[in-house]
Each structure stands twice: as structure tokens, then as C-alpha cells.
Records
---
Amino acid sequence: MSHQPLAGKVALVTGGSRGIGAATALRLADDGADVAITYVSSAEQAKSVVSRIEQHGVRGEAFASDQADPQQAASLVDKVMAAFGRLDILVNNAGIFVTGPIDAAETDLEAMDRQYAVNVAGVVAVTRAAAKVMGEGGRIVSLSSTAADRAVFPNLGDYSATKAAITAYTRAWARDLGRRGITVNAVQTSSISTDMNPDVGSFADVQRSMNALGRFGRPEEMAAAIAFLAGPEAGFVTGATLNVDGGFSA
């Protein structure tokens, strides 16, 4: 195996301007892939990530694309194809986290609807568009959460349901695309230190106490798992859900 197992491949990482998405984009670039990322509002951060991607000697490009609007998915994939000429790896990373109880009048229903649009409808739309242009050996990896399996805190219903949908889609898409030699897998995480889930404060302390390793994970540790599933050595892994959660699910 060469030091760059993804040389000659093109990857698209949604939500790649920060956190797990940025770490994944940089890891795939280090493995030799040209990498496209998407962003919504953080143009400067996206530009910085592209610059760091290019430091690995590969091509990088950032595209503004709001995953809450599924209509943008097809044009996003068209833009990636126009810029790079192919698409081998899709990492469905973009997602948001909104909480609220089912029975509270003050629950922000508009925010819940946007969460569903981003976490489910947008992922489905991008995957549909990408699957049409991928060839044999294609890789689709979606970010899910251990909340798909366990609602260990109140107020997680809507978020948990969005992630459970992605985990279920993963299994079904693996069946749909297996005949074409395209693998589809999900990575479920719990406590990774990002802007969305910082590793400081009382809630962070509770999370640490609930996993076997007693610490938060780093975005780079998630990226390593995603890179494995995106690489040639995972050719016989499909329809799988890999927990990268510090033993939270143990």
C-alpha cells in the first residue's frame, strides 16, 4: 500500500469548513485525494481549509451550498464534476444539533424542521446526486450519532430520529449500490470536541463520565475512521455502522 492510498481519487466532504469535516478533508488530502468541501456561511474558514488541503500537494476547492435546500444538491455535484472531472468519495458530514422536548409549547418547530432538512433530506439529496456519477470502487460515508441507538438524555427526539434515519439509509443504500461496487457506511460518534459540542462545562463533564475512556475524542480520530472506510482496504465493508465513541456504547 502506498503512502497515498487515495491518489487519483476525488472526495467531497459536506460541511468541511470546520470540526470533523475539516479534519476529514485534511486527512483525505494527506492520503492523496483531491478534496472539495462545502460551507454555508463560513467562507473564510472554508478558504483556509482549502489552503491547507493544497499544502498536501493535491487540489482543493470550496463550494457554497446550503444542505437545508435539497434543490442545491444536484448543482453541487455538477460543480464538483465540472471542477474535478470525477467523484469517488462522498462524506456526508454536514449536520446540525437542535434539542427540545416533544411536549413543550416553546420548542422551536422551525429550527426542528431545518434540522430535519439538513440532517436527512439534504443528505439524501446529495447522496442521490453523487451515486449517479460514481463508478466502481466509490465510497459513501455518512456521519451519524450514537443518539441513533440510545436517547440517554431528554430533548433529543428530533435529533435522534434524524441520525437513526441516516443509519437506516446506510444499510438500504448498501443494498442498492452494492451491485455497482460502491460501498456505503456510517460512522456514529458521541463526544467529539468541536464547536457544536465543546469539551468544557458541566454537560461535557457528564458526557466524559459516560464513556469508557473518560475523555472527549478529537476530530482527527473521527477522520481516521472515515479515511479507512473511504480507502481501498475497506472494499468488503458495506452497510456497516462503526461506533467511534470512546466506549460510550459499551
---
Amino acid sequence: MQSTHSPFSPVAIGPLTLKNRFIKAATNEGMSAGGVPSRQLALLHANLAGGGVALTTVAYCAVSRDGRTLPNQLILEPASLPHFRALTDAVHANGGLASAQITHGGCFTFIRERSTRRPLSASGGFNKIGMMSGMFFKQAMTEADMQQVVADFAQGARLAREAGFDAVEIHMGHGYLLSQFISPLYNKRRDSYGGSLENRLRFPRRVLRAVLDAVGREMAVICKYSITEGTRAGNSAEDGAKIARMLEEEGAHLLVLSAGMNAESITTMFGSSFPKENRVQQKNPVIALAMAIQRMTDPVVEFRELYLLEHARKVRAAVKMPLAYLGGAQSLSSIEQVMSEGFNLVAMGRALIAEPGYVNKLANGEGRSNRCTACNRCVAMMYTPGGTSCVLGQPGDAELNRVPAAGAL
């Protein structure tokens, strides 16, 4: 499939029309003290919109308190709506649209306070993620658990709509709950939700259907998933193509093609190794331990542009629906290549953290390359008082990061 579309041309995603083909990918910013967006988070996304991004994604909006991965994670609940509304208003005022990434961590969690005895997952038993938090066991979800989580995702989507978001992105990748069903690394069930890839997709498809029924006529419904898990025992890119066909069949408006797993294959996700600086600055012992384990288990990988393109091509060949390429697009030439190969949009994370105005820079002919070096040090910056920022620029404002988006300074 070939495309002659300019990356600066409009595109329809379900009921939504984007002014261009650029999406700010979801990245954890560390700008949500108390579980609500901070002034700093609203400013970050407003600046991305003002910099030309058509759709900016607010990462890791938990659909329930049990669904949180980390303390202070954003939660979509009625009390948080004024702060989300302040963020979406700021994005709209700067000419952009906003997407809420809705998620549930499952057993990938560091939150001990929960309504269930153990963290929920596709399967029960030993919880390898719990080695870092002292929660050594997880419990398999029952039908009642599934019904509750499906309802939580649908309600989260409705709350996102009420908060002024234009789209929701269901997180099905990287080892969180829906990924735990999709992945053979986590799903060992012997009922209709385990075994074959079709069975492993059954619960994520239920979630997608419920979200589409709740908001699909008014909002774009996007799915982000790992097209390859980057490990021998995990899903391959061929599996990723089959997953895409099932999500297309269920009615998703757009797929964001990520890769890798947080615990097993982080370099597959980022396309390059994490530097020493990401570890020695960590004061949080849990995070420091997690990074140390990743250093010992992950190979050294040098960054290259479009590092996921070979895998993404298999998905593009398998479906007709809109796809957003994600993975190392850091120059106009690589963006144009993605467009020429039939991908409808490009999602960018680190490059837009480094240069929030990059899209306008390209559109105005002011340059072609991005200053991001893929050093991955921005990932560790989320644990600093000002939240995520590029180490080549200015740190985030710690004072603004302490104030809720709709609160007074």
C-alpha cells in the first residue's frame, strides 16, 4: 500500500479529523501529584499543541484506583475532571486535540492498597513484577472481575469525553493488564480466554467493544499495542499482524504500533539502551532496582531511525485501517518514508519532548532533523521535581508541577 499524503495534510480517525499526521505519543511525565494533572502537565501539552502537533496523548490515565501502576498516577474519576478539563481547554486554545490514554496495570503495579487480596492478571501464581514491590503473587481474573474492568474502561472513556478529550487510547501493550491477556508470557489460562491468540484477544476485544459503544460515535477510539514483544517466548511481528486484524474487525479507529515489554524487553520499546545516568540518579530504591535488572538482562542496543519499521510493515500489509507508526522517526526524511509506505500518521515521543515545536519547524521549512539523541535520559527525568524534560533543555517547573491544573498558585 502506497500513500502520497503529505504529513501536513488532514486525516480522519473515526469521527475525528486531525489537522495533520502528527501525534504526540504517550510518555509518563511525572506531572500528576495526587492523581490529577498539574499546571506543568497542562502547560506541556498546550506547548505541544502550539508547536503544531495535531493530537497530543495524556499518558497512563488509570480507569480505577486498583488500575494504577504507580503512586500519583492520573485517575479518571469525577473529582479529577476539573483538572483534566483545564488541560484539554489549554490544548484546544493552542489549536490541538487531546487524547486520554486509558489503562489498567493489572499485576504490573507498585500499589499495595487495593480492593482485591492480590493484583489481578490474566493468570494467577507467582508475580515476577512483584519481586520489586513485595507483592509476590497475583490472582487470575474471574468473569465478575472482567465485567468490572470492562465497565471501568467504558466509564473512563465517558469521563474522558466529559473532561473535553477528543479521543481515547486503550493501552494494550508493554505488559499492562490487557497486554497480560494478549501475551503468552503472562496468559496461561486454559479457558476461553487463554491458549490461542484469538482466545487471548477475547478480553481486550470486550474492552474495545465497550469503549466503542460508550463513546465511539463522538470520540476517536485508538488502540496502542506491542506489535512484537521482543522476546523469544512472546508474540512476534507475525502475531502482531494477526492482532491488528482482530482489532480492525472489532472496529478500532486507529492502531498505534508500539513494541516491547516493560520488564522483559525495554530496549525493543525504545530502540536503544538506557545509559548509566538513568540509574545512578535514582533515589527511589524500587525504581533503581528495576533499572538495575534491566541493565543486567537487556543487550546493548545502538539507536537507529525507524527501528520498528520492519515489524510495522507486516501490520501495514495485513490491514486496511489507519495506522500510526511509532519508533524512531526523528527527521523529515524518515517521516516522509513512513508516509510513503502507507502509514497514515506518525507518533513521536522523545523527539517532541526534545523539541515541542518540531512539527511547526518542519512545516515552516526551518529544519529537517530533530535534536533528540535518543539517550533515554528523559525517562528518568519523570522522577525529578519538575517532571519529564529533555536534558538538553530546561527542566520542568517544580512549582507548577505541585499545583493541580485547575488550582490556584
---
Amino acid sequence: MIWQRLSPIWKTCIEDAWAAYCHNSLPHGAVVTDAEGNIVAHGRNRIREQASEGKQISGNRIAHAELNALLELDWRNVNVYGCKLYSIIEPCPMCTGAVRMAHMKEITYAVRDGGAAAPL
């Protein structure tokens, strides 16, 4: 099966997307890895949820998976310059800007989003 061949990074993204879907939000998950490829934070879309855990936000239009992953990151103990963000769907301009402002090394996504993403 395909699931067994996926890396832990993509499995976590998919699990978070599924959790978002189960909570009536858009099925979208994101993961932040450090320079060695270890998962150091992850988040899910929570725009339609009224409660969240940890530092994540919910219940508003900016509660995107990427922002929630960034909010979960331990900024004091992780060198963000070597971090990468993985996302199920191509990040919107707001999330791309947040990742760039965090000075992360790279953004990787599984699926293009021609509707919400910035044009090429």
C-alpha cells in the first residue's frame, strides 16, 4: 500500500488533514522539520473549529494549517534557518509570507492549489 511507503512527515500531514476534515474544517495539514528532517511542529486547518490545543488558533479565517504549525514551533530551541515546511496543499500567499518571514529554508507541498495560491 502507498501508506507504508510514505515518510513520517507526509503521514503526519495526512493525519492532520484527516483530523481537520473530521472537525468540519478544510482537510489540510502541515509539518515543520528541522535541518536533520525531524518533525518539530505540525498543525491543521481549524477555521471552522471553536477550540484548539497548544498555541494553535481556531475559529477564524486565518487558522490555516501552516500558521498553526508555525505557532507550535519552539522558536527558542529550533534553528528556523534550516527548517522546512511541508504542506498537503500549496500554501496561500498569507502562509507563504509567514514561512518566508520566519526565514525557513524551503516549502514543499503535495498538491497545487490554483484557486487560492498566488499566480506564477
---
Amino acid sequence: MKILVINCGSSSLKYQLIDMTNENVLAKGLAERIGIEGSRIKHKPTGKEEVVIEKPMDNHKVVLEIVLNALVDSNYGIIKSMDEIGAVGHRVVHGGEKFSESVIIDDNVMQAIKDCIDLAPLHNPPNIVGIEACKELMPNTPMVAVFDTAFHQTMEADNYIYPIPYEFYEKYKIRRYGFHGTSHKYVSLRAAEILGKDIKDLNIVTCHLGNGSSVCAVQGGKSMDTSMGFTPLEGLAMGTRSGDIDPAIIPFIMDKEGMTFDEVNDMLNKKSGVLGISGISSDFRDLEIAMEEGNERAKLALDVFVNRVKKYVGAYVATMCRIDALVFTAGIGENSSYIREKVCEGLECLGIKIEPELNNIRGKEAFLNKDLTAVNILVIPTNEELMIARDTKALI
């Protein structure tokens, strides 16, 4: 079975076509600037040169038509007919409490995804647009929704309920949901495979560290707790997001600066994190270079980020009473030896001992510890598209 994986953003669309007989990627691509001047698709068939298609793309349906045509094109296509696509797996950011696993999309599921728009106003609408465009172009092809929040639905109430009046949970479902669930699920399962153990017997802390970052406690293959909350703003300091702050800071800044709530919300999401502290960049590569050149605020930004990650790792180890593996993934986790080293530094009391010579790797699976009595420290590149494809295949 060949499965098309779709990840729709407001002005972008990522896709992969995966042959599930061997889990090989046949083609992948990225459409950018949808509905904006200068729109284009970068289409990369495996074993062939990348093709850049530049033409006006007013909406996601137009993009998907171009993508589907590219997949069957005689020059740079990878399949002979659309009939070879057995199913489509869609990434959907928010499923609320309605979905604890991936589901085949029907009218009831579509309505439930729409009902969650209040919880993810920036993400669910483009996800819905992508699904509806695919249904129109491929009406006889089964579709599956894979939710970022579903993996975390195994959390117990004492981990997801906020200490505010309970009526707000009852009325508006204000609670911790967590995100990056597909990534945390994939790397925890992969860690168990690498270790040759049943995931039901393992306690794993997974660190998805990128421009958006989160940490997850995975006990017996299930999410026990995670750092992101009602929205992706909670938790770690990130590229541009503040993460955990005293909520009283919000009205204080509004009063002192004469800012509206929308302006403060924008500031916390887009102008804070390591960008806000450093004043330089939200890109951790830029910050590491600036730190090496003696920029103290760049160093401080990285120190704050590392400190937050370390606190969550320690808290989750304490909660689970034991840790068998610490996993680093996503852009920073996979590529920054400096961040990995600093996160592990000082955690020797928990059995977390990183080896500098093993840590000098980028973007590939690796063990970072030699001591077999210590906690397994692994780098595992995330593969959310493959996880989506696997869930889709299992359901279809």
C-alpha cells in the first residue's frame, strides 16, 4: 500500500508518498506561500533531481492538484496512476478530548475537528482545508486523521487539570492537552526497538527540541505528562514562545506598557523565548555562534533554555521513579551537541552521563553514553510522517 501523508499549514503544505511494504519514501515536497505572490512547490522524487514548480497557487486545492499531477508526471513522477495511492493520512493538530487515537475521517470526525477550532484557531482551520481539498480531489480514497494531541490523552487528571475553578474545565475544556504527540510516540517506540526491549517495560523521557519544544514522560509506552499545556505556549522557553511565566506578568505589562491583550499574546508567542532574551535570533545556530563570539545575552538565552529542559527531565524522572532512556529529537535535539551536553550536565545523580566523543554527531541515530550501568542517552531523528503513515495503514 502507498500512503500519501499531508501536513497543511495556513500558507504551506508538506507531503510525503510512502510505500508501506518497505516504509520507503517515494517522494516528498513542500508547497510555500499559498495564496501569496511567489508561491512554489519543491518536489523531490526519490532517486531523481528536485523539481521546483513556480506558479500561482490561490488555495490548497490548487496545490494538491499540482502535487497529485507531479506524482504521476512522466518525467518526475513516481507512480503511474492515482489508483496506486491507497489512503491519505492527515496531520491534525488538535483533537481535544474527543480523540485518544487516530481515526478514519467521516462526517462526524470532520465536525469534531471543527468543534476544536476554538482550542487551535491557527492550526485546525488549515488542517480542515487540506482534508476537504483531498476529499474533493480523491473522493474514493480513504482518509485518516492523526492528532498531535491524541498521544497525551493517557495523562491522568492530576496531570492535566489546572488549579483554576473546575467549572472552566467543565464549560470550556480548559486543561493540559500537550502537543508534538506524534513525534514523542515515534521516538519512544523507536527507542524501545533500538534497546531491544518491550516498551511496556520502559520509562523514557523524550525531548522534542526545535523552534517549538516539549518534553514528555513516557511510561510503559503511554504519555504520563508533558510540558506543553492548553496551548503550545506553556512549558519550555522556545524560539519565540515564552513558556512558563507567572501569569500576573500579563496584566502588569498591559498596565505599564498600555498594551492590549492581543498585543501581549502576540509578544508571548512571537517575540519572547530565546529571541526575546537574546535580542538576536530565534535560531539556536545563530545564538551558539554569537555566544562563541562573546555575546552574553545569547549565552543567557541558551542557559535559560537548557535550564528549563533540565528541570522538566528531572521532574519526570522523579515522577516515574526511574528512567531507562533519555531521547533527544527534532531540529535542535538532533543537531546541537552543545545543547545535549548542557542538558545532561549536572544530571549525573540521576545516572545520566553523556560522553563528549559520542556526542559529536548530527542528524542520525546514536547512543551518547558508554557506561552500561547509566541511563541510555539516544539521539533519534523524528519521523512524524512515517508515524502518520503507520497509523493510517493500521486503520485502513
